[in-house]
Specification:
The protein has helices at 5-8, 12-44, 49-97, 101-107, 109-134, 136-151, 153-200, 202-207, 211-264, 269-310, 322-332, 405-411, 435-440, 456-461, 472-481, 485-490, 508-520, 538-552, 567-570, 590-596, 598-606, and strands at residues 365-372, 382-389, 394-399, 420-425, 428-429, 442-445, 454-455, 498-499, 526-530, 559-563, 575-580, 583-588. It is α/β, with parallel strands linked by helices and 611 residues long. The protein folds into 3 domains: 5-310, ABC transporter type 1, transmembrane domain (ABC transporter transmembrane region fold), CATH 1.20.1560; 322-441 and 524-606, Rossmann fold, CATH 3.40.50; 449-523, Rossmann fold, CATH 3.40.50. A 6-stranded mixed sheet has the order 6-9-10-3-11-12, with helices on both faces. Strands 2-1-4-5 form a 4-stranded antiparallel sheet, covered by helices on one side. α5 (109-134) packs antiparallel against α7, α7 (153-200) runs antiparallel to α9 and α9 (211-264) packs antiparallel against α10. The radius of gyration is 35 Å and the shape is elongated. The chain binds adenosine-5'-triphosphate. Residues 321-356 are annotated as: Disordered.
Length: 611
Amino acid sequence: MKPFMHYIKPLWFPAAIVSLLSLLTVAGTLYIPTLTATIINDGVLKGDLEMITSSSINMLVVALLTVLSAILGVAMSAHISASVGKVLRDDLVKALQCFSLRDFTHFGTGTILMRTSRDVEKIQSVLGEGLNMILPMPLMICVGLGLTFYKSWQLGLVILAVMACMILTIIFIESRALPIIKAIQLKLDDITDLVRDHIVGMPVIRAFNRRTYENDKEIVIFTESARLNKKLRQTFAIGLPTILILFNMSTVAILWFGGYNVSMGSLQVGDIMAVIEYANLILLSMLMAIFVIIDIPEAIVCYARIRELLEHENTDTFPEPYASSITNSMSQSTKHSTNQGSYQTSTGTGTATATATATDNTPLLEFRNVTFRYDNAESPALENISFKVYHGETLAIMGDIGSGKSTITNLIPRLFAIESGDILFKGKSIYEWNVDDLRAHIGYVPQKAYLFTGTIDMNVRYGAASGQVLSVEDVENACHLAKADEFINRLDGGYQYTVSQGGTNLSGGQRQRLAMARALVRKPDLFIFDDSFSALDGTTERAVRTALQEELQKDNRPALISVEQKVSAAKKADHILIINRGQVAGYGTHDELATTSTVYQQILASQEVTA
Ligand SMILES: Nc1ncnc2c1ncn2[C@@H]1O[C@H](COP(=O)(O)OP(=O)(O)OP(=O)(O)O)[C@@H](O)[C@H]1O
């Protein structure tokens, strides 16, 4: 695990200033009671008014300087903790961008959200408070105890004894609290998952009157969380009064031993006042430091949880013969680059660029005996899939629900890695492509259109490949092709209309059209439309399909792979791929399949289409 100091190192200068300021604060804080003792012993008891006045002025100046250095120290430590928090969050975001889709499923949304928010927050607060509270503590103890022993060794021993009792109490509390803290953190992850599910699924919950059912689930998890929190508070409740009692007992013991020493003539009254003040400062400083120290184990757990994400190796495997070369290149590449997607920037054995042109006979895309399995699935979702798509061609994929159509489309931009076989793009395995370059050639419209918080313009521009500069006309033209311009112009602010998270303030059809515009603006070589037309009305669908056909005639002759539900749409494609239970059940034109494929014949029959 990368040591935490790695994050502090670049901040050595502000850290050094905080240390210096805390030294000044401690010196000033301890100087005040020393001065008090002098005022009482040499001023008050001897009736020396001049001495009292000059010492009081001194005390005022020292007090002001001490306050100033304390304020500066707090400001500096806030700067350090905020900077560390920022770097940690940056690292986390970069690491998450390198996660495969499997990895997200493996960890779960709740824990990822908690680690990037609450865990970082905890580390930040413990670091900030630690610099303010823990850093001055050793100095306060050493100098405070030294001054006390100088005045009276018996009083020094009293403070030491109280400190020892305090430490034992804290160790006892902490050993009981730590397992509860860990359990609370796991529960918080579950709560985040549950609440997120409820917010996203609220329409379904309401429509099906499942409020009570969901409430019951909430009650179980919230009750358990409340029980753990109560247990934690009870654990602390035993300890804190004990510490306060020890605190007060120290004053009583100092007065008792101090009074005895004064009566024996070995101590002055002012010294007792000073020692009480030293004891208060030492114990208070210890107490405040302990409050932060109590939080350190929790912060360590948080850091370990964060590191688990930061150091997580992408779990996707690669098909032979690319596995070893990709693994090697991954280990050499800069980890956690900022590319969006599953792998590091230089995954793939090379940085292949287009090796075939529109006039070549090389297929634009070729699946060669591809087999793919989802995590922990007993049987593969796809088995031995083979087909080719050429430039300018349209391929419709059809099949039953859950037969594997979307899975095929997801494999092309390497959202998942295949188990065996190969997928070739422009004659090169997609595993030999630099993943960013590969994706730059693909305009992907997922089955469920997702939009990001921001403007419509920003969401469409999201489709730009890296380095591609888009003009206003490019955005408007893509929206026109996707027939999105009609509704955009009716919205308040048009292209600057604010889209809420996920695009929930737009209809399903509007979201789908923007998702298409996002793919079109990229001007890719391969369009992948995963059942993207089903959310559109008939007129819009026809208009978009016509516009898309015109795009396929452009100079770069892009191809289109489209998952289709309706035979009426699929029959216009150059080829149709029929998938049944993860296997190819037919490939050919509509006419060919209508006579050769029983699965296609069943689809025709179900849609009452005659061959
Ligand atoms: N992320 C996943 N993890 C595990 N299994 C999955 C995952 N996604 C899909 N599957 C399974 O893989 C199979 C193929 O799913 P896929 O989504 O490709 O089907 P589809 O033909 O596109 O279905 P639909 O017509 O409903 O969109 C299904 O049996 C499904 O249960």
